[in-house]
Amino acid sequence: GTWGSDKLNASRQENPFMMTWVPGAARHSVPNMTHGEGVYLFDDKGNKYLDWTSQAVCANLGHDVPKAVVDAAAQQMATLPFVYGGIGMTEVRTRLNQLMSEILPGDLRAAVYPSSGAEANEAGIMMARRFTGRQKIITWYRSYHGATANAGAATGDFRRWYGSDEVPGFVKAFNPFPLFFNHGGPNATEEESVQAALNMLEEQILNEGPDNIASIIMESVVGAGGCLVMPPGYMQGIRALCDQYGILMHVDEVMVGFGRTGKLFGFQNYEGVMPDIVSSAKGISSAAIPMSMTACNAEIMDFFEDKPLGWGSTYQAHPVAMAVAYENIKYLIENNIVGRSANMAPLFEACMQKLANDHPSIKQYRAIGMFGCFDIQDTNGANPKLQHEAAHQAFHKYKQAYIENGLVGLHRYPHIHCAPPLSITEEELIDGFQRLDRALDVLDDALGF
Ligand code: PLP
C-alpha cells in the first residue's frame, strides 16, 4: 500500500475531476473509501464510518452485496451480457416482469427499465404527455426528481435553478404542509388544512386549464426535501382531483421505494391510493448496479401497443442490471427487509424524538419507517438557498463532528437526514444515533445554544 494520502492528494491535484452538487475542490476533503462491510465503509487511513444515509439513500442493504446477487450478475455476464432492448427479448426480462407484476399493486406493470431515477421520470413524463395529448406537468416546490432536463424542470428545489428552470411545461404547486405557514389559517385543524391545500391545488388546475395538464408528479414521501410525509387525506384528494380532470397521477418512488418507509412502496402508506405511473430506482438494486423502472397501469400499457413510447436509452433493460434487480428483490422478500424496516420504525422514531428533545439546535423532525429528517433551528432554514452565514459556519463544524464521530452521509442544510441501511441491527442503529447525538452537541454549541 503506497497509495497513501500524499500520493492521493497529489493525484487529485494532477488529475482533477468534478464533483456533482458541490464545487470540484471538495474532492480534496472527501475520504478515499477502500472497502465496505455491513453498514460500514472504510477509508485508506483506517477510519471506519457508519453509513448514516445509505449513501444517497440507495445502498439499502449496506455494503455487502448478497452472494445470490453477485452470482446472478456474473452468470448473466458470462451467458448473455447484453442485448439491446429494441433488438431482442431476454429470459431475465420475462422473469423480472413476472416478479414485478407480483409485487406491484393493482394493474401496475413494469413498462421500462432505465438506468437512473431521472430517466425513469423522463420516461414517465413522456408516457403521460403522449397518453393524454397534454403538455403541462404539475410538481411540488419541495421535491427532487433528477438532473436530466425534464426531471430537473420537474424538480422544485434549488437544483432546478442551475439550468432546468427555462424548460417549458412545468408548473409548481405548494406542498400540502409548508413548514412555516398553515394553509387553513392559524387555528385550522389538520383536516381543514388538507382541504385548503387541495382547494388551492384545484384552483391552480382550473387556472392552468385542466385540459392542458398531463400529470401531477409527486414523491410519496418527499426525500431530499426533508422526509415530508403527506397528511391524512391529501393523497386521496390528489387521486380524486386527477380522476375528476383526467390528469395522470405519477408517483416518484425513486428514494423511498423498496422498503424505506416500512412499506414496499411509499404510496402504500396512503390507504386506497393507486397511482397511474410509478417511477423507481435506487432500492430496486440496492445500489449494486445502476437500475430503475417506470411502471404504468394497464390502460397506458395498452395505449402504447400500437404507438412508440418515444423515449429510449441504450442500456434500458440491461440484462445484467435486470439480473441484479431480480435477485435483489428476491433477497428483500426472502429476508423480509420491508417488514424489518416497519418493525424498526418505533425504535427509530424514539431515537429521533430523544435527539429532538435533547438538542436546542433541532427545531422539529419527521420519521416514517427507517427514514427520518431533523430540521435545524434557524430562522432562514426554510430557504435552502438563503445563505445564513452563522448557521453555515455552525453546520460546517457539525459536519466535521459527524465525520469525527465515525458517521458518513449526505448533508442538505437545513436538514439532517437519517436513512441507514435497512439491514442495520438495533445495536448499530442506537450506536448511530449516539454518534449523531455527539455531533449535535457540537451543533448546539456552534449555534450558541
Ligand atoms: N427522484 C427522487 C425522489 C430522488 O430522490 C432522486 C435522487 O436522489 C431522483 C429522482 C433522481 O435519481 P437519479 O439520481 O438516479 O437520477
From TrEMBL:
A GO cellular component entry from the record: cytosol
GO molecular function: pyridoxal phosphate binding; transaminase activity
Keywords: Pyridoxal phosphate
Listed SUPFAM superfamilies: PLP-dependent transferases
Family: Belongs to the class-III pyridoxal-phosphate-dependent aminotransferase family.
Protein name (record): Uncharacterized protein
